[in-house]
Design a protein that fits this description.
Blueprint (H helix, E strand, L loop, with lengths): L1 H8 L10 H9 L8 E5 L5 H9 L4 E6 L11 E5 L5 H11 L4 E4 L5 H11 L8 E5 L7 H4 L4 H12 L30 H5 E7 L2 E6 L1
Parallel strand pairs: 1-2, 1-4, 2-3, 4-5
Antiparallel strand pairs: 5-7, 6-7
Helix pairs in contact: 1-3, 4-5, 5-7
């Protein structure tokens, strides 16, 4: 269903190019009829916004871009002019129109920009929400990130944080107070990031991070 819409509207998320649609299908289908709020960073030709508007029939769709994309505004689509490195503006948008249930970074594809945006918006993401970053391969391309792998380095660090040092012996974070044996084995208190990430699903060129 999502791939058919991607093909219809011409987004590069379709099976004809990146094939992110295949991944989105499993994560988004359970939310298809939910009244959720979606923010996509990077609008360009509006193809993705139209795809989400068609798939999520009850969702509010928001998009930001460094260019004016107001021509794509509809009853359920609202766009903003915003640089994804502008954290004060991102916070303002999130506080006024969020919290968002899904955030998709398909913006500049510059590694340092990805990290700045994630550091700002993930804490503001709704509980149980999904944060998705596309085109991770660009972090390694000189013409995009000039060898800067800030976002990928951060991602690797988050993998360590959510699993390191045996701080919690239970996979289910909500049962942390019942940790029993492992309670004595902890190496310090779990920090906010350790407590806040439910999973990190990394695929070729795309990552899905779910907030507890």
């Amino acid at each position: 269903m999502i791939n058919e819409l991607c093909l219809k509207f011409g987004t590069d998320k379709s099976s004809e190019l990146h094939n992110y649609a295949e991944k989105y299908e499993s994560y988004f289908t359970p939310l298809k009829d939910a009244k959720i709020k979606i923010l996509e960073i990077g609008i360009q030709n509006g193809f993705s916004l139209k795809t989400w508007e068609s798939f999520f029939e009850k969702a509010e769709i928001f998009g930001i871009d460094i260019n004016d994309c107001s021509r794509f505004n509809t009853e359920r689509i609202k766009t903003f002019i915003c640089d994804q490195r502008n954290t004060s503006e991102l916070e303002k948008i999130s506080k006024e129109f969020g919290p968002f249930d899904i955030i998709i970074d398909d913006g500049s594809h510059v590694s340092s920009d990805m990290k700045i945006t994630f550091d700002c918006l993930f804490p503001l993401l709704n509980h149980g929400g999904l944060y998705i970053v596309e085109d991770l391969h660009c972090c390694y391309w000189q013409n995009f990130s000039k060898g800067n792998t800030d976002f990928m380095d951060m991602l690797k660090n988050l993998l360590d944080l959510t699993n390191s040092n045996g701080k919690c012996g239970l996979a289910e974070i909500k049962n942390i107070d019942k940790d029993g044996f492992y309670q004595e084995k902890r190496l310090g208190e779990m920090n906010w990031w350790e407590k806040s990430i439910q999973y990190i699903h990394l695929y070729r060129s795309i990552v899905f991070i779910k907030k507890n």
